[in-house]
Amino acid sequence: MKEIEIYLGLGSNLGDRHTALLSAIEQLVLRVGRLVRCSSFFETEPWGFESEHPFLNAVALFRTTLSPRELLTVTQDIEREQGRTHKTRQGYEDRVIDIDILLYGDERVDEPDLQIPHLLMQERQFVMQPLNELRGNMKRPAQR
After folding, report:
1. How far apart are CA 9 and CA 67, in angstroms?
2. Which of 128-135's residues contact partners 24+ apart within 8 Å by CB, and which partners?
3. Tens digit of pLDDT for each residue in 89-127?
4. Which end of the chain has the least Cβ crowding within 10 Å, N or C?
5. Could you say which DSSP state residue 98 is in?
């Protein structure tokens, strides 16, 4: 399988946020593929819920041979290993680490547990600011 460029969004708002992001990136390098670039880390307020704990967010560009489904499995494994007990289905909450698949080349995936491009990324400044740092002002992905 040929390599695909993928963009992953990372966030943490519990514990040592900086170390959590660096650890997640290290694990992604070991399991996903080559890290091409990583954005700066941005501190942001929680989005979609109230919390006294601000987030640290970043976006990383990787090259991978993993399929979107394999990539999802790896990112969820890393989240669990770093202490994330579950993905929230209704509402948002504080988390040690969150890894979202934002873009997978030009591919589109529309499955119950996996949507690429990420459905809400355009609404989230904490995603768009680091993504734009890596890509320049990106165009809005076409709607499904």
Report:
1. 17
2. 129/42, 130/9, 130/39, 130/40, 130/42, 130/57, 130/58, 130/59, 131/7, 131/9, 131/39, 131/59, 131/102, 133/39, 133/40, 133/59, 134/7, 134/37, 134/39, 134/59, 134/61, 135/7
3. 555 677 889 999 999 999 999 998 899 988 778 777 888
4. N
5. E
Per residue, the 3-state secondary structure of 99-125, as one string, reads EEEEEECCCCEEECCEEECCCCHHHCH
Reduce the DSSP state of residue 42 to 3 states and report it.
strand
> Both tokens of residue 137?
């002002």
pTM of the model: 0.87
Task: Say which CATH architecture domain 4-133 belongs to.
Answer: 2-Layer Sandwich (3.30)
